[in-house]
Design brief:
Layout (H helix, E strand, L loop, with lengths): L3 E4 L4 E5 L4 H10 L4 H8 L6 E4 L3 E9 L10 E9 L2 E5 L5 H12 L1 H7 L4 H16 L3 H16 L3 H33 L10 H54 L1 H10 L13 H22 L4
Parallel strand pairs: 2-6
Antiparallel strand pairs: 1-2, 3-4, 4-5, 5-6
Helix pairs in contact: 3-4, 5-8, 6-7, 6-8, 7-8
Length: 304
């Protein structure tokens, strides 16, 4: 597939979808990129990172794609080479958001003028800004999940809540894994000092850093809330278990007199009053009164 390009006076945008061997040869022949950067483009998926060189910098940017229906988080990433007169974007598969931006720039004259009005760093900002705001729109879904679990805890659905909390915590930690590296990258971008980009680009990269940091703090708050709900749920489960154990223990203590009676009269020895048929009813009455007395005592002590 031929490499798509958008040319302007200041720089050219090279848009590479479904990166393959021919694209790799094109990059080697037309640019002086570090071999390790090119290897990263065709290697394993990795966390977001930024490598700065004299004439360009190389950005790996990882983003989660929230699948609300299946509650899964597939991870995708794009690679960016940014120099004075070029921006190269590389993806291994078609990414909807990135494709949309590219074709908007091609087909919308006003947007094209805005995108190429400054330098390649500003176009990178527009791409990342649109991409981040489309991806990090998951907070309403997470809030709904947390609210649902809080209601389940109040209704006493402890067993179901254990699994729901574990699943939600796994999702939040997956998002946190992605945004932790994003936070480091956007923070470095906001302070980047290279000769091939204008100084004013710091303002735009700082805007990205603020946006990512805001989402990072939101995910931190979700993590803390989930941990608090887990502690509350575990406390309620422990309380209910203790209540059950108290009742069972009370019954065990209450029937001890009967156990004693059966043990005594189960022995193969002569015992007093064994030949009096009404004596057994007297014993039953006596031990029934003892059992009732034990329950009254336990109740007065607030042990049951």
């Amino acid at each position: 597939m031929p490499i798509k390009t958008v040319k302007a006076e200041n720089f050219t945008w090279y848009f590479i979808n479904e990166f393959n061997g021919q694209d790799l040869i094109f990059l080697k022949n037309n640019f002086k990129f570090h071999p390790l950067d090119l290897r990263d483009c065709s290697g394993e998926i990795q966390r977001s990172k930024l490598d700065v060189y004299k004439n360009y910098f190389f950005l790996v940017f990882q983003l989660p794609l929230w699948d609300k229906g299946r509650k899964k988080i597939p991870i995708t990433q794009a690679y960016f080479f940014i120099g004075k007169d070029y921006l190269v974007t590389i993806t291994r598969e078609k990414i909807k958001f990135l494709n949309t931006i590219f074709y908007k720039v091609i087909n919308n004259h006003h947007l094209r003028e805005e995108a190429f009005a400054k330098d390649s760093g500003y176009l990178l900002y527009l791409i990342l800004d649109d991409w981040l705001r489309n991806v990090w729109n998951i907070h309403n879904d997470l809030e709904q999940e947390i609210a649902k679990i809080e209601n389940d805890i109040e209704e006493g659905k402890s067993k179901k809540t254990v699994y729901d909390l574990a699943s939600l915590r796994r999702l939040v930690l997956k998002f946190k894994t992605v945004i932790d590296s994003q936070k480091l990258v956007t923070n470095r971008l906001s302070r980047i000092d290279v000769s091939f980009l204008k100084k004013e680009i710091h303002v735009y990269f700082d805007d990205l850093d603020d946006f990512v940091e805001k989402n990072w703090f939101l995910l931190e708050s979700y993590k803390d809330r989930i941990l608090s709900m887990q502690e509350i749920n575990e406390s309620l489960i422990s309380f209910r278990t203790n209540q059950i154990m108290k009742v069972l223990t009370s019954f065990s203590v209450a029937i001890l007199p009967l156990t004693l009676l059966s043990g005594i009269y189960g022995m193969n020895v002569d015992l007093p009053f064994v030949n009096h048929p009404n004596f057994i009813w007297l014993l039953f009455g006596l031990f029934s009164a003892i059992i009732i007395g034990i329950f009254i005592y336990l109740k007065n002590k607030d042990w049951i």
